[in-house]
Amino acid sequence: MLDLPTYDAFVFENSFANQYIGVKGEYTQKLTKTFKDIKRFWNIPSDDIILAAMHGIMLLNRDKIVRTYVAAFDVDPTTAALLADM
Known about the structure:
This protein is mainly alpha-helical and 86 residues long. It has one domain. The protein has four helices and no strands. It starts with a helix and ends with a helix.
């Protein structure tokens, strides 16, 4: 099975702004701090690495499903819409 929330976050998220970790954001602060610590620990260029939330709730948004099939899997928009409706 395709993991659409993962691909949606991977392809479309380019900023951590307005994101949350956990159902109600209960892990956002802890993971943001840990992510910053990890970036400092590893001696690599990391300005382009972001922490991205992957929420299954995107599966309730038909437009997000369609755009993910089109962008991540190169499915034509008509077929993507049919898959989203299923």
